[in-house]
Amino acid sequence: MKKLFAMVMLSLFCASAVVLSMFFNIGNVQAKEWKEVRIGTEGAYPPFNFTTPEGELAGFDVDIAKALCKAMGVKCVLVKQDWDGIIPALLAKKYDAVIASMSITEERKKSVAFAGKYYQTPAKFIAKKGAIKEFSKETVKGKTVGVQRATIHDSYLTDSYGSDVEIKRYGTQDEAYLDLKAGRVDMLLADSVALDDGFLKKPEGKDYEFVGPDLTDPKWFGEGAGIAIRKDDSDLVEMFNKAIKDIRADGTYKQIQDKYFAFDVFGQ
Description:
A hairpin with a 5-residue loop joins strand 3 and strand 4. The chain is globular, with a radius of gyration of 24 Å. The strands form three sheets. It has a five-stranded mixed β-sheet with strand order 5-1-6-13-7. Strands 10-9-11-8-12 form a five-stranded mixed β-sheet, sandwiched between helices. It has a three-stranded antiparallel β-sheet with strand order 2-3-4, covered by helices on one side. The N and C termini lie far apart (about 75 Å). It is an alpha/beta fold. About 35% of the residues are buried. It has twelve helices and 13 strands. Helices cover about 40% and strands about 25% of the residues. Helix 3 (about 60-70) runs antiparallel to helix 12 (about 250-260). The protein has two domains: about 35-120 and about 225-260, Periplasmic binding protein-like II (D-Maltodextrin-Binding Protein, domain 2, 3-Layer(aba) Sandwich), CATH 3.40.190.10; about 125-220, Periplasmic binding protein-like II (D-Maltodextrin-Binding Protein, domain 2).
């Protein structure tokens, strides 16, 4: 009887040890060792991200992504993704992070976590030179305004001017530029740097200009461009945040910035 009791007690002890071991090591089970990070970007938003004639992804976002991966000591794999599906594809695990000039907004925080910011620039309207001498709701009333679909600019335009203007939405910024040049829209709204480098500084943009004020209201334009990551991958958020600080401190960020811009894009 004593032998049976001892065997039962030994079995209970072993079972308890296994349970305790599982409990105390649960963090180790859930933790992921990041050797490779797949990064989604649009490849159609110059100078931040674009596709070269050779089919390669390039631009400020892409160079920043590569620098951050190097700082984290991981292999960087770039994945091209249309803007409309960029968050759904992240959640579906097509890639691990989005570096595509995505503004950090309260609405997006409901779906994903963010690391960043890694830059912050204002939004702005452009129109044909002389078409709008004094910008106001009255002077733009009845105009047709182009904007990239499902962006912060789309949300701002809809909320602030939806009852005053006709809105045309596009899958890419390049499509919007083509319609502006063809006269199918009167104005465009987008990031000021993207508009300047992607259109105004090019031959086809010589007859156009910025109109209206810089637009920076956090309600629509967020806290700057950040790196979207699945909420479950909090360790990756921390890795990216540290890497941003590292490349800012060692001069890598400034080197990349100066390649594309003649001013500080990081913001306050």
